[in-house]
């Protein structure tokens, strides 16, 4: 059989990795796919010095690749929303299959893209868009297809996890570690997407969609970053037997879907709590399988390329098949996506860690307890760190049982109004992840 | 479209779980698969009281299911080698697709079964045969298809892991925990397959085959159980910063494939070292993706059923496709399996933990060091537990660098011949799993 012809758009980190993996493992990959895979054209503004492109056809115009009649599969690795969207839509229009690592594109424009792809009978594969080399999209869409998924929770931003790991292990401050992450190349010059949770929210949006069979709804994701975390709270969490991780959580509840990214206390003995540095991991809980976890490198040249190449092999296998029998883009048949609501954060329920800077008097504790009890918020434990007396104020740390965000907001307003309480109450959500 | 018709052979733990998951999640599964899946017939010696089989056709003859012209997919969940083999071969002969959870059958008769299946153009799916609900076969065959796999290492027997966890956490003796495991239903009345590593070797044989593209070679797997482990060694390993796990390890080396099941010291900080109780986890290291880990319930009624049902959905998706484009049974095209040798254990290389019951005199240490040095075995660390003097003998614990099993056997023979050394030298292999 003729080789399948692939056009790679973008030869940066992931594009370069994809090219190199396809070259180096060509034989191994052909032994699996049953066909050779040939990079027929590359669009790049400049040649990646890590790639030996040899006689491969190179252009600086991505649309040349998309319009090249020889090419079967367009691999979009240029990133961003605008040009990438035009490129992918044009590829679909031209009847080409698409592989992309672009989470922003899928989270924001995925519904439109998949609709067009289904009309044209082509595949848009996007395994590399979430958790780099970990095949978590395949796992949810195919490996757990017998389950009703209850929840998904993951460390899906390596930069954020690197920062939290350093803060905990070395007691360093957020800003200090961020600078190092930028110097190491883990964080961008503008780190907003990573540290404010936007990148994680893109990925969580995709995971929620394939887990629950709902359209992509990035605009409804609640997103809270890690910029306000102090090493103080990281250490208190430790003392309570928890670790703070920046989690994306998507959970099915009788009222609707919770879709939220925020710093989270999780029990220290969970495997997920022990995922450190730039590594990623995703837990998936299904009604039949129970809790499972998938761990690996969430970014990097070849780790992400691993997922891109796996998608190319998948496309090669099914490109000649009847589109009706393919794995649906969002795991569920397009005609049977569910319109179950994504809940606003006010209606989400979690347990909470609260740190209250309070006067060291029994009266304050009684007032705090009263405020919580009036709102039916049960206290699981209280820790007062007498060692750290400052101006007669000590931090009072509480763990609560589960309660709605709305009730907790109301309680915090009341707590902050107490005379014996100074400044803002620190609030971090808690998940048990059983 | 008409529903796909499934016949379930065996309604024990996994069969009952499969029936129940297919019933309970029928709607969710049809939304994913695009077709309804109907259990058209069940073969069972008795009805599982946990299943509401209602009007489903029941027989006590498995061949009735296999010969039923209405049935598209035969689900083999009777276990064992003999009847199961006949059943599966007959199903293939009748042109039916097969889903099985039977690791012994696949590890021992898989080559024959897959050859027949390819001749008839049918699929034999076996995700549930390894690590229960964790979709690790799909992950290696499809999710990591761009990689040259370097090694696979896993905790793939829940009973063994439960026993080791209890020995470590509670300082209990092997025999004592085994009795409890039997009482809890985690271990069979005859626990040989679990505690001697045979079950793990079946699973490892399958993983190695799909990782490296080699035929199934169960008879070449080296298998060592956990029956001789003492809680003493479990505690010493802890003191050295390691945990003892019963691992299946398949590794590509320039000389051939290592295929071995044995107790193994692994660094305590690895996620795999923290997989406890009856849980399973498999690490897979690929040249592009690096190290990844997959964790979940390795057994149990519905966890295993989760994998069986996922296989059924996969078969439904590809049953109408051209057999040439399907994922090959052993991940690589049958015509391009590799004849690379599986190495005998003598030629395998690992680091070692040695416990030598020795006289407490500097002379003995010098003799031990000489014996190792003469065989070019480097010592990484030595620990002598003076606290535990018994009859003037103290345990001397060594960690060595990597060396071939043959050299280590030779060294141990020499060590045991020393006058100052009492009894047998305890030897446990060590893997770093970076």
UniProtKB/TrEMBL annotation, chains A, B:
Name of the protein? Homoserine dehydrogenase
**Keyword flag Nucleotide-binding:** no
Q: Key word Repressor present in the record?
A: no
Q: Which residues form the active site?
A: 203 (proton donor)
Q: Which Gene3D superfamilies match?
A: 3.30.70.260, Dihydrodipicolinate Reductase, domain 2 (3.30.360.10), NAD(P)-binding Rossmann-like Domain (3.40.50.720)
What keywords is this UniProt entry annotated with?
Amino-acid biosynthesis, Metal-binding, Methionine biosynthesis, NAD, NADP, Oxidoreductase, Threonine biosynthesis
Pfam family, any one: ACT
Family according to the record:
Belongs to the homoserine dehydrogenase family.
High-level lineage: Bacteria, Pseudomonadati, Pseudomonadota, Gammaproteobacteria, Pseudomonadales
Top-level taxon in the UniProt lineage = Bacteria
Positions bound to NADPH: 103
Reaction(s) catalysed (UniProt annotation): L-homoserine + NAD(+) = L-aspartate 4-semialdehyde + NADH + H(+)
List where the protein spans the membrane.
none
Needed cofactors, names only, are: a metal cation
According to its UniProt record, in which pathway does this protein act?
Amino-acid biosynthesis; L-threonine biosynthesis; L-threonine from L-aspartate: step 3/5; Amino-acid biosynthesis; L-methionine biosynthesis via de novo pathway; L-homoserine from L-aspartate: step 3/3
MF terms (GO), sorted A to Z: homoserine dehydrogenase activity; metal ion binding; NADP binding
Q: Name one GO biological process term.
A: methionine biosynthetic process
Q: Tell me which residues bind L-homoserine.
A: 188
- Annotated residues that bind NADP(+) are located at 9-16
Start and end residues of each ACT domain: 353-430
């Amino acid at each position: 059989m003729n080789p399948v012809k692939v056009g790679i758009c973008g030869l940066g980190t992931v594009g370069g990795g994809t090219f190199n993996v396809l070259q180096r493992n060509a034989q191994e990959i052909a032994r699996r796919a049953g066909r050779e895979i040939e990079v027929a054209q590359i669009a790049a503004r400049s040649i990646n010095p890590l790639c030996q492109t040899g006689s491969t056809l190179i252009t600086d115009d991505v649309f040349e690749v998309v319009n090249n009649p020889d090419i079967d599969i367009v691999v979009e690795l240029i990133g961003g929303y605008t040009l990438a969207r035009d490129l992918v839509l044009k590829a679909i229009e031209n009847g080409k299959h698409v592989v992309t690592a672009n989470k922003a594109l899928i989270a924001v424009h995925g519904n439109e893209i998949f609709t067009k792809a289904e009309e044209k009978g082509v595949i848009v594969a996007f395994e590399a868009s979430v958790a780099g080399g970990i095949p978590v999209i395949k796992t949810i869409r195919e490996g757990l297809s017998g389950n009703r998924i209850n929840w998904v929770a993951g460390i899906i931003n390596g930069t954020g996890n690197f920062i939290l790991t350093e803060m905990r292990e070395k007691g360093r401050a957020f800003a200090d570690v961020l600078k190092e992450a930028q110097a190491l190349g883990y964080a961008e010059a503008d780190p907003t997407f990573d540290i404010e949770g936007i990148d994680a929210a893109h990925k969580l949006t995709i995971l929620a969609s394939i887990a629950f069979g709902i359209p992509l709804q990035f605009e409804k994701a609640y997103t809270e970053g890690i910029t306000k975390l102090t090493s103080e709270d990281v250490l208190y969490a430790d003392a309570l037997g928890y670790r703070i991780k920046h989690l994306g959580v998507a959970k099915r509840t009788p009222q609707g879907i919770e879709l939220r990214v925020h710093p989270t206390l999780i029990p220290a003995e969970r495997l997920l709590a022990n995922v450190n540095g730039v590594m990623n991991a995703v837990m998936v809980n299904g009604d039949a399988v129970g809790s499972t976890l998938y761990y690996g490198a969430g970014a990097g040249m070849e780790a992400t390329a691993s997922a891109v190449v796996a998608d190319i092999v998948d496309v090669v296998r099914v490109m000649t098949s009847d589109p009706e029998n393919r794995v649906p883009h969002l795991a569920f048949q397009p005609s049977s996506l569910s319109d179950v609501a994504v809940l606003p954060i006010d209606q989400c329920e979690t347990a909470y860690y609260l740190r209250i800077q309070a006067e060291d008097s029994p009266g304050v504790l009684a007032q705090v307890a009263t405020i919580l009890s009036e709102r039916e918020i049960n206290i699981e434990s209280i820790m007062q760190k007498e060692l750290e007396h400052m101006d007669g104020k000590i931090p009072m740390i509480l763990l609560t049982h589960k309660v709605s965000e709305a009730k907790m907001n109301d309680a915090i307003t009341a707590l902050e109004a107490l005379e014996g309480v100074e400044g803002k109450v620190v609030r971090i959500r808690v998940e048990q992840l059983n």
